[in-house]
Amino acid sequence: MKAVVLYASADDVAAKAPAHFPAHKARLDEYAARGDLLMVGTFADPQKDGSMAVFRTRESAESFVAGDPFVLNGVVRAYEIRDWQEILVP
Predict the structure, then answer these.
(1) Which of 30, 32, 13 is nearest to 71 (CA)?
(2) What residue stretches are annotated with the YCII-related domain (predicted)?
(3) Quick check: is 71 in a domain?
């Protein structure tokens, strides 16, 4: 079982994100290096559709979000963590 984090962007995400991106990226790199973060990215229209990250466990997703500079500084207005059952395709 994996965990997916869905972020809903704040109304002014393009203005707010640059100031907090270096700290956000450092956190992404930390979680990726230890194998907890598997994938991350924005949707085609980040303002309207937000972004998504896939974590190895729900615990790692919850831990990431709890200290994410984008969450702490209002770059995202809301988030949701969903458990996700990965199906491998041959």
Answers:
(1) 13
(2) 1-85
(3) yes
Spatial distance between the Cα atoms of 55 and 31, rounded to a whole number of angstroms: 9
Output the six-digit token pair for 87.
């199906």
Full-model pTM: 0.92
CB under 8 Å to 13, separation ≥6 — which residues?
46, 47, 75, 76
Domain count, the chain: 1
The Cα 9–Cα 79 span in angstroms is 9
Q: Residue 8: give the domain boundaries.
A: 2-79
* Sequence-separated (6 or more) residues with CB below 8 Å from residue 62: 3, 81
Residue 86 CA to residue 74 CA, distance in Å, equals: 30
- The pLDDT tens digits of the residues spanning 9-62 come to 999 999 999 999 999 999 999 999 999 999 999 999 999 999 999 999 999 999
The CA distance from 80 to 31, in Å, is: 18
